Amino acid sequence: MADRNPAPDTPELRERWGAFEFTESYRERADKAIARYPEGRQRSAVMPLLDLAQRQVGEETNTQGWLPLPVIEYVADYLDMPVIRVLEVASFYFMYNMKPVGKYHVQVCGTTPCMLRGSDSLFETCKKRGMSKGHVSDDGLWTLTEVECMGNCATAPMVQINDDNYEDLTPERLDAILDELAAGKQPKTGTQIEGKRTSEPEGGPTTLKDMVGANHDYRGEW
Fold this sequence. Notes:
Blueprint: H1 11-17, H2 24-34, H3 46-61, H4 69-78, H5 83-92, E1 104-109, H6 112-116, H7 119-128, E2 142-147, E3 159-161, E4 164-167, H8 171-182, E5 190-191
Parallel strand pairs: 1-2, 4-5
Antiparallel strand pairs: 1-3, 3-4
Protein name: NADH-quinone oxidoreductase subunit NuoE
Pfam families: 2Fe-2S_thioredx
Cofactor: [2Fe-2S] cluster
Protein backbone atom coordinates (compact mmCIF):
# COMPACT_ATOMS: atom_id res chain seq x y z
CA MET A 1 0.00 0.00 0.00
CA ALA A 2 1.02 3.62 -0.46
CA ASP A 3 3.12 5.31 2.20
CA ARG A 4 0.82 7.79 3.96
CA ASN A 5 3.60 9.72 5.72
CA PRO A 6 4.33 13.20 4.37
CA ALA A 7 7.57 13.87 2.55
CA PRO A 8 10.38 15.02 4.88
CA ASP A 9 10.22 18.72 5.76
CA THR A 10 13.56 19.82 4.29
CA PRO A 11 14.98 23.25 3.38
CA GLU A 12 14.73 22.20 -0.28
CA LEU A 13 11.05 21.42 0.15
CA ARG A 14 10.47 24.81 1.79
CA GLU A 15 12.39 26.61 -0.92
CA ARG A 16 10.33 24.99 -3.67
CA TRP A 17 6.87 25.09 -2.11
CA GLY A 18 7.01 27.61 0.75
CA ALA A 19 5.49 30.38 -1.37
CA PHE A 20 2.69 28.22 -2.78
CA GLU A 21 -0.68 29.89 -3.24
CA PHE A 22 -3.68 29.28 -5.45
CA THR A 23 -3.62 30.87 -8.89
CA GLU A 24 -6.56 33.09 -9.73
CA SER A 25 -8.35 30.21 -11.45
CA TYR A 26 -7.82 27.80 -8.58
CA ARG A 27 -8.72 30.47 -6.02
CA GLU A 28 -12.07 30.98 -7.74
CA ARG A 29 -12.74 27.24 -7.61
CA ALA A 30 -11.65 27.05 -3.98
CA ASP A 31 -13.91 29.92 -2.95
CA LYS A 32 -16.80 28.35 -4.85
CA ALA A 33 -16.25 25.09 -2.93
CA ILE A 34 -16.18 26.94 0.40
CA ALA A 35 -19.40 28.80 -0.47
CA ARG A 36 -21.30 25.51 -0.62
CA TYR A 37 -21.15 25.26 3.17
CA PRO A 38 -23.12 27.36 5.70
CA GLU A 39 -21.48 30.03 7.80
CA GLY A 40 -19.24 28.49 10.41
CA ARG A 41 -18.81 25.27 8.45
CA GLN A 42 -16.27 26.44 5.89
CA ARG A 43 -13.70 23.92 7.13
CA SER A 44 -15.88 21.24 5.57
CA ALA A 45 -14.33 22.30 2.25
CA VAL A 46 -10.96 20.85 3.25
CA MET A 47 -11.26 17.84 0.92
CA PRO A 48 -12.04 19.77 -2.29
CA LEU A 49 -9.35 22.33 -1.45
CA LEU A 50 -6.74 19.62 -0.96
CA ASP A 51 -7.77 18.17 -4.32
CA LEU A 52 -7.44 21.56 -5.99
CA ALA A 53 -4.05 22.15 -4.39
CA GLN A 54 -2.83 18.75 -5.56
CA ARG A 55 -4.04 19.45 -9.10
CA GLN A 56 -2.27 22.81 -9.18
CA VAL A 57 0.95 21.16 -7.99
CA GLY A 58 0.43 18.60 -10.76
CA GLU A 59 0.13 21.32 -13.39
CA GLU A 60 3.28 23.02 -12.11
CA THR A 61 5.29 19.79 -12.14
CA ASN A 62 3.69 18.04 -15.15
CA THR A 63 2.73 15.13 -12.91
CA GLN A 64 -0.45 13.80 -11.35
CA GLY A 65 0.26 16.03 -8.37
CA TRP A 66 1.00 15.62 -4.68
CA LEU A 67 0.78 17.52 -1.39
CA PRO A 68 4.06 18.89 0.01
CA LEU A 69 3.81 19.94 3.66
CA PRO A 70 3.95 23.70 2.86
CA VAL A 71 0.98 23.21 0.53
CA ILE A 72 -0.94 21.46 3.29
CA GLU A 73 -0.09 24.38 5.59
CA TYR A 74 -1.39 26.78 2.94
CA VAL A 75 -4.73 24.97 2.78
CA ALA A 76 -4.91 24.98 6.58
CA ASP A 77 -4.32 28.75 6.63
CA TYR A 78 -6.86 29.27 3.85
CA LEU A 79 -9.53 27.55 5.95
CA ASP A 80 -8.28 28.81 9.34
CA MET A 81 -7.70 25.23 10.49
CA PRO A 82 -4.96 23.63 12.58
CA VAL A 83 -2.38 22.13 10.23
CA ILE A 84 -2.62 18.75 11.96
CA ARG A 85 -6.34 18.52 11.08
CA VAL A 86 -5.62 19.06 7.40
CA LEU A 87 -2.71 16.63 7.51
CA GLU A 88 -4.99 14.01 9.10
CA VAL A 89 -7.39 14.30 6.15
CA ALA A 90 -4.65 14.29 3.53
CA SER A 91 -2.89 11.26 4.98
CA PHE A 92 -6.09 9.26 5.48
CA TYR A 93 -7.55 9.35 1.96
CA PHE A 94 -5.71 7.63 -0.86
CA MET A 95 -6.86 10.20 -3.40
CA TYR A 96 -4.18 12.48 -1.98
CA ASN A 97 -0.54 11.74 -2.77
CA MET A 98 1.85 12.35 0.10
CA LYS A 99 4.98 11.85 -2.01
CA PRO A 100 5.90 12.98 -5.55
CA VAL A 101 4.36 10.83 -8.28
CA GLY A 102 4.88 10.51 -12.01
CA LYS A 103 2.84 11.99 -14.82
CA TYR A 104 0.60 8.92 -14.65
CA HIS A 105 -0.33 7.39 -11.31
CA VAL A 106 -1.13 3.73 -12.02
CA GLN A 107 -3.26 2.36 -9.19
CA VAL A 108 -3.81 -1.38 -9.51
CA CYS A 109 -6.55 -2.95 -7.40
CA GLY A 110 -5.22 -5.98 -5.56
CA THR A 111 -8.36 -6.88 -3.58
CA THR A 112 -9.86 -10.38 -3.84
CA PRO A 113 -12.17 -10.00 -6.91
CA CYS A 114 -9.41 -8.36 -8.96
CA MET A 115 -6.80 -10.80 -7.67
CA LEU A 116 -8.98 -13.77 -8.67
CA ARG A 117 -9.37 -12.23 -12.13
CA GLY A 118 -5.65 -11.75 -12.69
CA SER A 119 -4.45 -8.53 -11.06
CA ASP A 120 -1.13 -10.20 -10.23
CA SER A 121 -0.37 -10.33 -13.95
CA LEU A 122 -1.12 -6.60 -14.19
CA PHE A 123 1.52 -5.88 -11.57
CA GLU A 124 3.94 -7.97 -13.64
CA THR A 125 3.05 -5.94 -16.73
CA CYS A 126 3.85 -2.73 -14.85
CA LYS A 127 7.09 -4.18 -13.50
CA LYS A 128 8.28 -5.03 -17.02
CA ARG A 129 7.88 -1.35 -17.92
CA GLY A 130 10.17 -0.25 -15.11
CA MET A 131 7.54 0.47 -12.47
CA SER A 132 7.95 -0.44 -8.82
CA LYS A 133 5.44 0.18 -6.07
CA GLY A 134 5.71 3.57 -4.43
CA HIS A 135 8.40 4.95 -6.75
CA VAL A 136 8.53 7.25 -9.76
CA SER A 137 9.93 5.47 -12.83
CA ASP A 138 13.26 6.63 -14.23
CA ASP A 139 11.55 8.36 -17.16
CA GLY A 140 9.23 10.27 -14.81
CA LEU A 141 6.11 8.88 -16.46
CA TRP A 142 4.82 6.33 -13.98
CA THR A 143 4.13 5.72 -10.32
CA LEU A 144 2.70 2.32 -9.35
CA THR A 145 0.49 1.87 -6.28
CA GLU A 146 -1.43 -1.16 -5.05
CA VAL A 147 -4.84 -0.08 -3.77
CA GLU A 148 -7.85 -1.64 -2.12
CA CYS A 149 -11.27 -2.10 -3.74
CA MET A 150 -12.40 0.77 -5.97
CA GLY A 151 -15.87 -0.58 -6.60
CA ASN A 152 -15.47 -2.20 -10.02
CA CYS A 153 -15.68 -5.82 -8.90
CA ALA A 154 -18.06 -6.79 -11.72
CA THR A 155 -15.47 -5.65 -14.27
CA ALA A 156 -12.36 -6.94 -12.51
CA PRO A 157 -9.45 -6.66 -12.81
CA MET A 158 -9.28 -2.90 -13.00
CA VAL A 159 -6.76 -0.09 -12.79
CA GLN A 160 -7.24 3.60 -12.08
CA ILE A 161 -4.80 5.89 -13.87
CA ASN A 162 -5.06 9.50 -12.73
CA ASP A 163 -8.81 10.26 -12.94
CA ASP A 164 -9.82 7.39 -15.23
CA ASN A 165 -10.78 3.75 -14.66
CA TYR A 166 -9.83 0.93 -17.03
CA GLU A 167 -11.68 -2.35 -16.53
CA ASP A 168 -11.84 -5.96 -17.73
CA LEU A 169 -8.10 -5.86 -18.17
CA THR A 170 -5.58 -8.41 -19.38
CA PRO A 171 -1.82 -7.82 -19.53
CA GLU A 172 -2.15 -7.13 -23.25
CA ARG A 173 -4.98 -4.64 -22.77
CA LEU A 174 -3.08 -2.82 -20.01
CA ASP A 175 0.04 -2.69 -22.17
CA ALA A 176 -1.96 -1.08 -24.97
CA ILE A 177 -3.36 1.54 -22.56
CA LEU A 178 0.08 2.37 -21.21
CA ASP A 179 1.46 2.62 -24.75
CA GLU A 180 -1.21 5.17 -25.65
CA LEU A 181 -0.59 7.22 -22.52
CA ALA A 182 3.16 7.21 -23.13
CA ALA A 183 2.46 8.50 -26.65
CA GLY A 184 0.37 11.37 -25.24
CA LYS A 185 -2.96 9.90 -26.32
CA GLN A 186 -6.15 9.32 -24.32
CA PRO A 187 -7.12 5.62 -24.25
CA LYS A 188 -10.71 4.45 -24.13
CA THR A 189 -11.85 4.38 -20.53
CA GLY A 190 -14.12 1.88 -18.77
CA THR A 191 -14.41 -1.71 -19.94
CA GLN A 192 -11.80 -2.83 -22.44
CA ILE A 193 -13.93 -5.63 -23.93
CA GLU A 194 -15.09 -4.77 -27.43
CA GLY A 195 -18.87 -4.41 -27.64
CA LYS A 196 -19.36 -4.34 -23.88
CA ARG A 197 -20.77 -1.10 -22.54
CA THR A 198 -20.69 -1.23 -18.75
CA SER A 199 -20.79 -4.12 -16.26
CA GLU A 200 -23.12 -6.48 -18.10
CA PRO A 201 -21.87 -10.05 -18.68
CA GLU A 202 -19.71 -10.75 -21.70
CA GLY A 203 -21.99 -11.50 -24.63
CA GLY A 204 -24.70 -9.17 -23.36
CA PRO A 205 -27.28 -9.19 -20.56
CA THR A 206 -28.91 -12.45 -19.52
CA THR A 207 -31.88 -10.88 -17.70
CA LEU A 208 -34.09 -7.82 -18.28
CA LYS A 209 -33.09 -7.94 -21.93
CA ASP A 210 -35.90 -5.62 -23.02
CA MET A 211 -34.27 -2.85 -20.97
CA VAL A 212 -31.35 -2.69 -23.39
CA GLY A 213 -33.15 -0.59 -25.99
CA ALA A 214 -35.92 1.03 -23.94
CA ASN A 215 -37.23 1.59 -20.44
CA HIS A 216 -39.39 -1.52 -20.54
CA ASP A 217 -41.99 -1.89 -17.79
CA TYR A 218 -41.90 -5.48 -16.55
CA ARG A 219 -44.43 -5.02 -13.76
CA GLY A 220 -47.35 -6.44 -15.71
CA GLU A 221 -45.40 -9.61 -16.44
CA TRP A 222 -44.55 -10.47 -12.84
